[in-house]
Structures are given as C-alpha cells and as structure tokens.
Amino acid sequence: MGGGIFGPTMDLMRSEPMQLVQLIIPIESAYRTISYLGDLGLFQFNDLNAEKSPFQRTYAAQIKRCAEMARKLRFFKEQMTKAGLSPTKSLRSGDVDLDRLEVALGEMESELIEINSNNEMLQRTYNELSEYKLVLQKAGELFHNAQSSVAAQQSELEAYNTNEATTDSALLLEQEMTMDPSKQVKLGFISGLVAREKSMAFERILFRATRGNVFLKQSVLENAVVDPVSGDKVEKNVFIVFYSGERAKNKILKLCDGFGANRYPFMEDLNKQFQIISQVSGRLAELKTTLDVGLAHRSNLLQTIGFEFEQWNFVVKKEKSIYHTLNMLNMDVTKKCLVAEGWCPVFATDQIQNGLRRATLDSSSQIGAIFHVLQTKDSPPTYFQTNKFTSAFQEIVDAYGVAKYQEANPSVYTIVTFPFLFAVMFGDWGHGICLLLATLYFIFREKKLSSQKLGDITEMAFGGRYVIMMMAIFSIYTGLIYNEFFSVPFELFGPSAYGCRDRSCGDASTAGLVKVRATYPFGLDPKWHGSRSELPFLNSMKMKMSILIGVAQMNLGIIISYFNAKFFGDNINIWYQFVPQMIFLNSLFGYLSLLIIVKWCTGSQADLYHVMIYMFLSPTDDLDDNQLFFGQKFFQILLLLSALAAVPWMLFPKPFLLKKQHEERFQGQSYARLDSSDYPPEIEPHSVSHNHEEFEFSEVFVHQLIHTIEFVLGAVSNTASYLRLWALSLAHSELASVFYDKVLLLAWGYNSILARSIGLIVFISATVGVLLVMETLSAFLHALRLHWVEFQNKFYVGDGYKFFPFSFASLGEDDE
C-alpha cells in the first residue's frame, strides 16, 4: 500500500493513502495557485467559510461578474438554438482575457438584442401589412358582390314598376325620390380579421350586444396567416360589420379588442382601393428585403459567436469555479495571505508543490506558498484510481455505498464475479455472441459516441459497455459448458460419449443409449438435450452448482473481512467475528458443499436432503445407505457442536472486550505526558473529548446481538438466495427451447415461404425482446442483488465518502 510520493499506487484494492493539507498562499499568487491546482485535479478543498453566506464572501463580486457573463452566453445559446445553429465542438487553445471577453460579450448582446428588436418590429409591420392586403382584397370582393346584387335588384324593380305601375306606387316612388338627402340614415362599417375558431362566438356576442342592429359579413381565408401580435400561424376570417350610430361603433370596437380581432381601414372608392393595394404591395417588398438583410446579419453574428462559444463558455466556467474555490479559503489576520485546507493523495505531494512553486514564479510573488501536512482524526475521503474499464464496476459498488477509507474494495472481485454470476443465469453462447456484437459496436465507436448526446437507455448501455462485454464473454463460456446455441446443442469438442445399443433406439431418448466413447471433454454431452432425463439431470446439476458458487462467494466475503481486520489492526474482529463466522458457515453449508463434491466424485446414491435434515434432528442415528465416507457420523456431530459453539462465540466476548479496551484507553489518556500530543491545539481538545465519551455497553451488546442473529439467519437465507442462479438459468434455457421448438421449427414444418418468414420474424423478435433484453435485465438485477446483499454484507461497511477534487476536467455542460 506504499506508493510513496513518486506516483500513484494504481491499487484498486484499497483507497489511495490520503492526507489533510494546509496551504498558506500569498494573495498575489492565490488566483494562479488555484488555477494550477484545478489543472492538476488532485486537491479537494474544504470550505473554511461555511458559516458565511455567498454574499459575505471575499470574491462575491467576481462570481457575480462571471454569472452575468454566463447569463449572456446562455442567451447566445438560446438564440443559436432558435436559429438552428450549434456551437463548434472544437476547443481552440489560447488565453482569453476576461476583461476583453466581458466587453465583447456585452457589445454582442446589445447588438443581438437590437437586431432582434428591429426584426421583431419589422416582422410585425410586415405581418400587419400582409393582413391589411388580404382585408383590402376580400372586403373589395364583398363590396363588389354587394354592389352587383343591388344593381340587379334595382333593374328588376324598375322593370316591375314600368310594367305594373299603379297610382300608389308612383306616388310612393315620387315621395322617395323627393325625400331630403339630409334625413337619410348613413351606415358606417368596420373591417378586419378574426381567428376562425372565435368567429362564431364573435358573431353571436356582436348580435346580442347591439340587439341585432348590425350586419356582419365574413369571408374565409384559404391559408393561415401569421398573427402580428403572437407571431404564430392562425387560420382567420375577414369580416365587415355595418352599424348605425356612435354607440354601436363603440361596442363593436370593444368586442374586437376583446376577441383579439385586428381592425384595418377600408375605402369604398374603387380607385383608392387599387391605390392603397399598390402602396401596400410596394411596402411589403421593401420590408421583405430589409428583413432578409437583417436575418442574414443576425445569422453571421450567431455563426461568429458559435465559432468561439465553447472556448468562451469554458473560460467563464473556469473563472467562476476558481473564484468559488477562493471563497472557500480563509483570510489570515494580516490580510496578506489566504489559508486553504483540503485532502490530497500522498502520491500527489510533489505535483502539488511543483504547482505552488510555478504559481509563485508566474505571479512574481516575493513569498512562496507553504505546504503543510496536518494531523487529524477525521476520516479521509475514498479515492480509487479507475480507468474506463474499471470505472463501471466501481460505480456498481458505489451505488450500494462508498467504501470506508482504505477498507477492501469489492469492485476488485466484482470485475470477475459479477459477469460470471450473470453468465451462470444467461448461459447460451449464441445469445452471448449477440450481446458481444452489440457492445463491440459501442466500444469501437466510443470516441464518436462519447461526444454525442444519447438517449437515456442508450447512454446507460454505453456507460456500461465494458460490463456488458465481460457479461457477454462469460455467457459464451457458460454457454459452451451448457452446450446451448439458441438452445441447440453442438458436438464442438468431439462426438458424444453415448450411442445406440441397437438400431431401434431413437436419437431423442436415452432409452437404449450406452456409453461407447470417452466422456465428452468439455461441458454438457449433447445427447442429454432432448432426452427424457434432461430436465432432472440439469435441475440437479445446476442446483448443486448454485450452492457451491454461493458458499464459495460467501466464504470469500468472510475472508476479506479478515484482511480488513488485519489491515486496521483489529484483533477482536479477527478472533471473535471472522473465526466463529467461518466455523458456523462451513460447519453447515461448507459441509453440504463437501457432500455434493464427494457424491459427484464417488457416484453415490445418498440422499443429501436426508443427511442434512437428520444431522440436526437425530445426529446420533446411523446413516446406513446415506453414508458417503468413513467417520461421517462422528464428523457431523463435531460440526454441529462447532456451529452451536460459534453462536455464543460471536455474541458474548466482543462487547466485554470492547468495554475493557475502552477503559484501558481512558486510563492511559488520563496519565499521558504533557508533551505527547502531536496534534495542533485546535484539533486536540475535540479529539480528547471525543475519546472520553461514555461507553454504552447496552447499545454495543444489542448491536452485537442483532449482528449475530442476522449472520446466523443470513447464512441460511443467503445460501437459499443463490438458488436463483439455478432458477434463472433453467428459465432462460427453457424459454430459448420453447422459442426454437414451438416457433421456428413449427414454422419450418410448412412448405409456405410466408409461414416460414412469419415464423422467423416472430422467433427473432421473441429472442431479441425477451431473451436478449428482458432476460439480460433480469439476470443483471439478480447478479446485482447477490453482490450487494449476499456478498458485500459479509465485510463491506460502505459508509465512506468520495474524493471530489477541484478539477477543470469535471466542468460539465450544465455546471454553473
């Protein structure tokens, strides 16, 4: 576990050795120091100003300045997204002056806001004129149709009066023609557009508000128009409302405003109509040209911003993170230095000191920064050096809990045991090849895919690509052992050991089969598949195999607890936890594993259920036919007594020894030398008071009682839990067999190409959807549970916290 200060130990078994460091940095070199430490990415700062609010800290103004620049960059990104542009991905090297960048961002924001404002105003005017042109055209058509209708009615009336004139009608006509023009009623009208979905309600309320004293005429527009107010495309109708009197006019105007109807003036004179339409058309052409020029200018500006956007964004985030870190530092009493505290790996000492010296030289500071290692009893953070292969397995373990500082890391074993347990449940080398091909696609294109934004499920699969690759490789291995390729057996390693006794026996049954050759060299003999005894044989084999794997992994967990206790110098846990746990587990289930192996080796017909049950119920009875080896009865009694003795061995001694240990430590501290303290004054009182806390014997005893009961019951339940390996392996095999026999072979029995095609499609869909997706997820979750619960609870504390160094490499897209 050494490694020293020359380089990382690259040891995944235990956390890198960490140290609490105090840095005393002159103010003139503080910025460069933090910047170089951020480039290094191996120092985790502690917040020494936790009691202060963000606004009371030293560099609050600089953070506010960076936040304002970040806001402008977000505004630019929103504008680029609306324009369908994306920032250039490549980061250009080179320093960016923050003051110049701030000025440039302000100028570009003002210019872009002005361009947007002008474009919005011009676009609104353009949309209003477009609507006005439509109103002129449609209203002109309405007036023309109305005038034509009136002229036709007058000609009919004149013809009628000429042919059938009477004295009364002549007098009435004469009275009408001689009427004073000043007494005639003058009608006004209002024209405009209203949304089609509101037109019926508009007409109804208009009629009610004026008590029917209006005349409304509407014309439907074929195409949707852009609304000047909202900017959205809306289907609208052109309307003309005829009214009489100012009171009715006021009501109509209020209703138009309430329904969002846009009003436009209209002239009855035909010549004026043509004149206005030509003016509006000319104005529209001018606005279109102006808008195109404005949009081109805006696009050029956004492209210029997009070319520099990634670099600017990174610089602003970097500056903000530096000042945020500086705010975590404490100002000393002279106001000339900043004091920082934090954690770093021991191997990084030289690199950090080199960074401090470089910052001092680059900032022309007269005083160098001081690097001082502090003594502390606080638990350091946990730091494992991982790569792209081991990081996914480490994440599986961290999802359960981060390892306590320097306790054994389960991910070392998980790299092998996790894909292996998955493969035991997923054993089919055809399915394994499919998984391997899928994950190789991710691995070969990882550089391209890592820079793209993927969907949630795809991103999850891409992140675990090396886990899936290991699962696929192990699945191919166990599939070869099970001799299953999409449930079909192959004679890959030679011919079957069995043959027909005579010509009458069939290939699909073991009846009449005899052993004619040497045992099949690797995996399951292909003759077992399809035979009558296939299921009983596989059931027995996989069930016993699951117990052997489970007992082996649980023993591994207990053995790791021994190495943990030895590493931390905890002899109590070695003698009163590790030893009795090993005795208890192996006296029962280790003995069961031994019986399984002996039975396989000797070919005995002993009933192991009977042996294990009567080992507890009648340990002194003779075994008769169930005896597997000489002295088995005496050996079973010895194991039973050992298991019974292990329970009080786990329960009683440890609490009393812990109490005695606490009392001895307390007495030793009471008579300690005055100069024996190696801790700084600010740390010592806290540690002494912590060690002088009263020992709660009852609490420790109850905790040990719970731990003992949990282990004793867990030894049974955890062993039974490993039978899921047998159950899921059997389910996977039978599902694959059903899909092959009842879908593919059944369809292939027909001579129709259509039936065969449908059968093949259904087989592929069922294989991919059920076996390669759902079964993969199911086996993954069961393997995860076996590691988290059955394996890790034997040794893993998992109450640590991760090492999060200050690093510019971790600045993500959404970090603020």
Helix content range of the residues, please?
Answer: 55-70%
Number of strands: 13
Mean pLDDT: 87
Uncertain segments are: 1-10, 169-174, 670-691
- Terminal-residue CA separation: 37 Å
Largest sheet: 5 strands, antiparallel
GO molecular function: ATPase binding; proton-transporting ATPase activity, rotational mechanism
Coiled coil: 98-125
Keywords: Coiled coil, Hydrogen ion transport, Ion transport, Membrane, Transmembrane, Transmembrane helix, Transport
Subcellular location: Membrane
Q: Could you explain how this protein is built, in words?
A:
With about 800 residues, the protein is α+β, with helices and mostly antiparallel strands. It is built from 23 helices and 13 strands. Strand 9 (about 330) and strand 10 (about 335-345) form a beta hairpin. The longest helix is centred in the N-terminal third of the chain and has 66 residues, at about 100-165.
Short description:
With 816 residues, the chain is an alpha+beta fold. It has a domain at 389-496 and 514-666 and 697-794. It has helices spanning 27-40, 60-82, 98-163, 167-177, 196-209, 246-258, 270-326, 349-362, 390-398, 411-425, 429-444, 446-450, 456-463, 465-482, 534-567, 571-602, 608-617, 632-651, 653-670, 684-691, 697-721, 724-748, 753-791; strands at residues 18-26, 44-45, 188-195, 215-220, 225-226, 233-234, 236-243, 262-264, 330-331, 337-345, 370-374, 498-500, 513-515.
